[in-house]
Amino acid sequence: MINYEGSFNDASSLKVGIVIARFNDLITNKILSGCLDCLKRHGVDTSNTSKNLDIAWVPGSFELPIAIKALLNKSDYDVIIALGAVIKGETSHYDVVINEASKGIASLAQEKSVPIIFGVLTTDNMQQALERAGIKNNLGWNYGLQAIEMANLMKELK
Questions:
Q1: Beta partners for 117?
Q2: Where are the beta strands (DSSP E) in the chain?
Q3: Domains, the chain, ranges and CATH?
Q4: Which of 77, 84, 85, 89 fits 24 for a cystine, CB–CB 3.0-4.6 Å?
Q5: Could you give the count of Cα atoms lying within 13 Å of 106 in the half-sphere of its Cβ?
């Protein structure tokens, strides 16, 4: 039996793409900061001159899949991280946005065989979103760690 497992050691050689939604930027900026902190601490060059990290901004989470597809067609990424925040309101718009974003992202991951980390917060209210993007529990860090693990696992499986 062979046991495959992605490592968290050195991520300096990984080519990472991040697609992030501007809508609810109070939340998405905090998640991005947590994600970049994790990547940096694991060896990814997160400077403005980095050749291994690209960040694409989109208006909202609904637009994540099309930008991810464009990035995947532009370069060979080891992993893509999709970041967004969809907060339930008083209409059904929440359901439409999250359903289409998640379906589009899942479809691209399977089509392109590149791991795409689903870092889109889905919460009932702003307080829940702030708690998930906060200092004590910033899920952006988790998304960065998942990206490193999956990118390294996919390299093992090739």
A1: 81
A2: 16-21, 53-58, 79-87, 116-123
A3: 43-81+93-157 (3.40.50.960)
A4: 85
A5: 6
Report the alpha-carbon distance of residue 55 to residue 24 in Å, rounded.
Answer: 17
Q: Which of 48-52, 93-97, 98-102 has the lowest mean pLDDT?
A: 93-97
Cβ(60)–Cβ(67) below 8 Å:
no
Give the active site residue among 93, 103, 106, 125: 93
Residue 2 reports pLDDT greater than 90: no
Burial 113-138, CB ≥16 within 10 A → b, else e: ebbbbbbbbbbeeeeebeebbeeeeb
Give residue for tokens 């996919």.
154
The reported pLDDT for the residue numbered 101 is: 95
Which of helix, strand or coil describes residue 40?
helix
The Cα–Cα gap between 3 and 72 comes to 29
- For residue 93, indicate whether it is catalytic: yes
